[in-house]
Amino acid sequence: MAxxxxxxxxxxxxxxxxxxxxxLTSTLDSVKRCEDAGAGAVVLKSLFEEQITSDTxxxxxxxxxxxxxxxxxxxxxxxxxxxxxxYLGLVEKAxxxxxxxVIPSVNCVSSHNWIDYAERFVSVGADAxxxxxxxxxxxxxxxGSVIEEAYFxxxxxxxxxxxxxxxxxxxxxxSGMANFIRKLSRQGADGLVLFNRFYRIDIDTKxxxxxxxxxxxSPGEMAxxxxxxxxxxxxxxxxISAATGIHDGNSIVKQILAGASSVQLxxxxxxxxxxxxxxxxxxxxxxxxxxxxxxxxxxxGILSQKSSTHPESYERSQYIKALVxxx
Length: 327
Ligand SMILES: Cc1cc2nc3c(=O)[nH]c(=O)nc-3n(C[C@H](O)[C@H](O)[C@H](O)COP(=O)(O)O)c2cc1C
Fold this sequence. Notes:
Elements: E1 6-8, E2 11-13, E3 17-19, H1 28-36, E4 41-43, E5 47-48, H2 49-60, H3 69-97, E6 102-103, E7 105-107, H4 111-123, E8 129-132, H5 144-161, E9 166-170, H6 177-186, E10 191-194, E11 201-204, E12 209-212, H7 222-232, E13 239-243, H8 249-258, E14 262-265, H9 267-272, H10 276-291, H11 296-299, H12 314-324
Parallel strand pairs: 3-4, 3-14, 4-6, 5-7, 7-8, 8-9, 9-10, 10-13, 13-14
Antiparallel strand pairs: 1-2, 11-12
Helix pairs in contact: 2-3, 4-5, 7-8, 8-10
């Protein structure tokens, strides 16, 4: 019988399906439902530094800072601790109730907070940590290398202070993507989540306004991560978790063939419900039986560029085939 277990950042998952950081993983009840539905692991909804700061500001209200400096300090710390403690409580309870790995996720603005938050997650038993790093390279005055350096700094700082595995969830706006991702791997990223899906805008032509392009991905979006995972999986030592646009069992098989150790799902579970997890697991299992693969490791990465007999022509040959219409 096919064994669906996989190793992701040294964590043994019962199967490669991770419920991605989202509202599906924001409460104890919701993560329990993910485990009951058969997920291999959960990444908790991200804790955003701004969320803590703005909630704190709201708690303090319009207090006169000058008149009550000491009191402001006290309330400010108490507020920060309140929201942080809520999140730590979720991690702690999830760890106590679930047998699958629980991975908190954090998104910070100030560098010292990445370390502070990471250490607190470790103290309540997190199995690993996902850093949801998002620096949109939208400022024409900022050089690409400056942005890349910010990612390296965050990773280095966090890795220096904690012993549990650390994954970076990143976007795809990097000019030298292969080089950048390999550097992240060499600088100690235990896992890389490729790729996050960011807020997209659309334009409402009727009302001449900006609007959201929607939060739910479509299956076609998977092509991006599939290509990069196939190109890079053999070049890096970090484990890869494929993300965005993965909506069925066959897509999970593809990502593993390209070299992913696990996949992260959100949109499909929001649209079709958590029960689809067991359908996807069944699909992977019957596909493995049909192809005579006993374990995930048996087929992980066998269609990556590195495993190709002509790795140098991997990209070009696919491109030419597409151009001249050879399948
Ligand atoms: C409603 C919603 C909330 C999300 N919240 C987070 C979050 O807090 N942290 C994070 O890293 N990603 C967040 N994501 C992104 C998902 O984790 C995932 O990476 C993205 O939706 C792409 O995967 P999918 O195509 O399976 O949806 C969110 C996505 C949605 C739709």
